[in-house]
Amino acid sequence: MSAAGPPAGHGPGRRARLRAAGLALPLVAFIGATFVVPLGSMLVRSVYDPVVADALPDTLERLRDWDGSGAPAEAVYEAAARELLVAREARVLGRVASRVNRVRGGLRSVLVRTVRRLREVDRGPWREALIDIDAAWGEPPTWHAIRTAGDRLTMRHYLNAVDLQRRSDGAIARQPAERRIYVALLGRTLLVSLGITVLCLLLGYPLAHLIAHAPPRRAGLLLALVLVPFWTSLLVRTTSWIVLLQSQGVINDLLVAIGLVGDDARFALIYNMTGTVVAMTHVLLPFMVLPLYSVMRTIPPQQMSAAASLGASPLLAFRRVYVPQTLPGIGAGSLLVFILAIGYYITPALVGGQSGQLISNFIAYHMQTSLNWGLAGALGAILLACVAALYLVFDRLVGLDRMRLG
Amino acid sequence: MTAGGAAARPGGPAQRSRAALGRVIARRPPAGALLQGAFCSLVLAFLVAPILVIIPLSFNAEPYFTFTEGMLRLDSEAWSLRWYRQVLGDRTWSLALANSLLIGVAATALATGLGTLAALGLSNPAMPLRRAVMGLLISPMVTPLVIAAAGMFFFYSTVGLAQSHLGLILAHAALGTPFVVITVTATLSTFDVNLTRAAASLGASPLFVFRRVQLPLIAPGVVSGALFAFATSFDEVVVVLFMAGTNQRTIPRQMWTGVREQISPAILAVATFLIVFAVLLLAVVAWLRARAGGERA
After folding, report:
1. Residue B153 sits at the chain A interface (C-beta within 8 Å)
2. Is A168 helix (H, G, I), strand (E, B) or coil?
3. pLDDT digit string (tens) for A279-312?
4. Contact B201, B159 (CB under 8 A)
5. Which residues, 6 or more positions from A123, have their beta carbon under 8 angstroms from its beta carbon?
6. Which pLDDT score, from 0 to 100, does residue B23 have?
7. CA torsion, points B146, B147, B151, B156, in degrees to nearest 10?
8. Do B126 and A318 touch (CB under 8 A)?
9. Alpha-carbon distance A271 to B86, whole Å?
10. A123, A125, A126, A132 alpha-carbon torsion, rounded to 10°
11. DSSP character for B246?
12. Which tens digits make up the pLDDT trace of B250-297?
């Protein structure tokens, strides 16, 4: 292994390396096949989309000669009419239409209606026929949209994910104000995650301190109280918060019963951002307490006495002697909580209502409801890049091999 | 935290022994300690009370998510086992349990086997690219589940594994392996390599050394890793949402539907079962740790 070693030491060194690598290899291959490759297939969709290009090859080929202003040549219309009908037969028209529609709103219905009525047209000139069905076929933006949607490789999902678009003249411009939502969404996700991390630190630090310096029996009991929620099903914990916080829930009932709030003025504690923050803080708090605890319990209490004997007040000793030594725990816990928070899905989905949704929820929405997989992939890639950066910082600061569970 | 009273400053420290001094400081000003104690009680209540609230509510005779007046009066009419009867008699729940157990056990077996082997490799100082490999193997734990689930949905569909038990088993195994790698690596970090050297010098084959020397010593780490992997699978819902068909519905999937669509205290009964299950898991892990002799796996 080591360069300084005698040549004889080289053989067993290499064998040991091979053996170690051989032990890890099955899992590396397994994670590669079941996890990394699927992740990649998701990210590829953010830049690669062959649907329109495969469905309208001739149209797109002939559109190349179009100068971009006025109506294209008759040959383009002929190809479009033919290929749209074929697409309908092959049952891909809906997918083509939705992709064109994403570039320019309103074109889905144009395409679908056109194809429906095209069946009654059996001969050209196709330009007149199409424009007769819908005037949009005479407008350049329609053809720009088809040309854009026809790019196999595209950056438009990423532009879209940061509220930009490419105008038909090729310049990059901001989305119209009502469609600028993703930058604010990412900002909100980061901000909420930061807020939750700070809350966890504020709640977790004193608790970890108490547990770390309690007599062993009591420390064990207190630690168990932290670990019970850690092991309890996430769905159970989220359900708990619904039970507690909903308008007819335990807390509101209690407040009404003791007369603090009127029956008609119950607090909206859930199905909004409040619900998301409260429930996520609850879910993530153990991830803060446990690393803090494991660092704090290695700090001998005599140090505080030593500081005091040198004249430091308790506050000064705490601030200058104790807290600096817990920085690794603060770093580990905060990074872990933050990493988990920015990717959180279940809790916001169940208790976040409209206003409490985070970026993961929009990714799921584009995956399952709007079926805009390209945009889901681009948002996913941005989120993944944030997580990966934090993960590297975590490895640098804390070291993955020093991570401990429960 | 423990700011507050100024009374802690000891007088003539030179005369006192270090230990006595330590006690004085460790006792800290009562005001600060009380404040910390009160604050921590609230934090602990925040952690535990929401979970405990579920348990009595699952015995509600009415289809409400809150305490009825009758329940508060401890009126026996207001308490009932109807939601437990409903859950136990409902085929969808028993099917979900069967699915959860099947997927959980299979995924755990896979994750534990592969994860233990990998941890043995990673704990070997000769392991090449150790840091990068570790980073790769832990990554399923921190990757946002929605992204992982979406990717798995696409990829597993193309290879025909979506909407199958096998697909979910593979996916859950991938998500569970980091826990096994972490716990077993942690156990191995306190493992004395001289033991294997000694055994080898006495003529034991590597496999024999592993089975008779290494495995018994790292067993607590392996088992607690396995429990983590099982708990991960048993509680996982995002991948299930994306990949499972109606035949692969698991307990968390049914809970999800229950919370989203048809809210009924029946899910509180299920939640109570899951809480009991979590406490059991926790107890087993704590017991294993105690057995391992202060090992921090």
Report:
1. yes
2. coil
3. 999 999 999 999 999 999 999 988 888 888 888 8
4. no
5. none
6. 53
7. -30
8. no
9. 28
10. -100
11. G
12. 999 999 998 887 667 889 999 999 999 999 999 988 888 777 655 443
Most confident of A393-397, B63-67, B135-139: B135-139
pLDDT of residue B280: 93
Compare CB distances from B170 to A34, A235, A342 and report the shortest one's residue: A34
Q: Which two tokens stand for residue A141?
A: 């933006």
From chain B residues 72-91, the ones with a CB under 8 A of any chain A CB are: none
Question: Which of A1, A380, A406 is the closest to B147 by Cβ?
Answer: A380
Q: Over the range A150-171, which residues count as b (16 or more CB within 10 Å of their CB) and which as e? A: bbeebebbbbbbebbbbebeee
Rounded to whole angstroms, the Cα distance separating B254 from B246 reads 11
From chain A, pick out residues whose CB is under 8 angstroms from the CB of B51: 228-229, 232, 236-237, 240
ipTM metric: 0.87
Runs of H (alpha helix) within B123-245: 130-142, 145-158, 165-189, 193-201, 206-209, 215-235, 238-243
Q: Are A134 and A127 in contact (CB under 8 A)?
A: no
Q: Within the 232-291 window of chain B, which residues sit less than 8 Å (CB to CB) from chain A?
A: 234-235, 237-238, 242, 252, 255-256, 259-260, 263, 267-268, 271, 274-275, 278-279, 281-282, 285-286
Given a contact cutoff of 8 angstroms between Cβ atoms, the answer to whether B172 and B112 are in contact is no
Please give the average per-residue pLDDT across A67-80, as a whole number.
90
**CA B272, CA B59: separation in Å to the nearest integer?**
10
pLDDT, one tens digit per residue, over A354-378 is: 889 999 999 999 999 988 999 999 9
Q: What is the C-alpha separation between A254 and B218, in angstroms, rounded? A: 50
CB pairs under 8 A between A and B: 332
Long-range contacts of A252-260 (CB under 8 A, 24+ apart): A253/B66, A253/B67
**What residue in B sits closest to A43 (Cα-Cα)?**
B151
B60 three-state secondary structure: strand
Searching chain A, which residue's CA lies closest to the CA of residue B254? A235
Is there a contact between A264 and A302 (Cβ–Cβ < 8 Å)? no
Tell me if A240 and B54 make a contact (CB, 8 A cut-off): yes
Distance CA A89, CA A73 (A): 25
